[in-house]
Fold this protein.
Amino acid sequence: MTSPEQIFGWAGQAAMIGWLILIFLPRRWPQLLWLPRFIIPFGLSLLYAGLAMAHFFTIEGGGYGSLDEVAALLGNREMLLAGWVHYLAFDLFVGGWIAVEADKVGLSRVIQAPILVATFMFGPVGLALFLAMRAGYFRKQEAAS
């Protein structure tokens, strides 16, 4: 039987592989981006679905209707793991989107790296940084033309 700790470790390692590809590997092989953009998030999403569906309905007082219900859900170890896998999947998917969009607007990989690290560590913080930077970049491009 696989323990929650083992699943936690495997999910984290899979996500880390995706982040390393996004941050450090060259983008001259577009097929390589499929791994962090789609394949790993898809696998993590399936893992989340399995964990959530197996445990969501078994938790007394758990749900999404109030903070107390969410706390009850996350008080269960398997649902806490599911929540963590949810973060891993969505943050990596968003990181893949940021990398592709940043490449499209010609944002340097040196500037992309801290944004991707922020997305890896703090999810929405990295997304907000990228969106703000992109808005400023486009404004600068329009002013120049």
Summary: The longest helix spans residues 77-104. The CA atoms of residues 94 and 127 lie 7 Å apart.
